[in-house]
Amino acid sequence: MAAADLGANAIGVVLYAKSPRAVAVADLADIVAKVPKRVTVVALFVNPEADLVRQVLATKAIDLLQFHGVETAEFCEQFNRPYMKAIAVSADSDLKSALASYGAAQYILLDSYDPIMPGGTGKTFDWDKVGELTEQQQARLVLAGGLAPANVREAIETVHPFGVDVSSGVEASKGIKDIKLMQLFIEGVRASG
To answer: 84: which of 50, 163, 166, 176 lies 20 to 30 Å off by Cα?
Structure first.
């Protein structure tokens, strides 16, 4: 609710049991019940079983699926719902090929590569890598990875993404959001123009 009140366009609910931010499917409808309709509710999965995705869809509580593991395009598309596919960016990533593999994705989220964690590392990647993409490809990018109030404006002005995604960068501790940091982050987004 705080994110929505501060002006966020979307909120994410993590449905990955190993995350300190994980929520239970049974709690999903209650968690998002008072979120304004203007705010997109994103369900984040990491290499889920198809049944879990179907259970979440059955709650009718979410608007967009986010796949943050090594899911194939075929897996992501089987649910016939808009989805965002996360791509872990490393120094040798071929972003053009990665984006082409998920042509049906509404958005592509670029996050930092980490050999152990699928996200939430608090680490940035080399934003200049995005320069190899066309404007059309950049238009559906959501930038993540190490974003925080101190660097979000620079990130937006460098990458020109459709949107930005933050989690650990606005936390007081793992899984606990800090409203002041959330406010500063959103102010940084707005300051980027």
So the answer is: 176
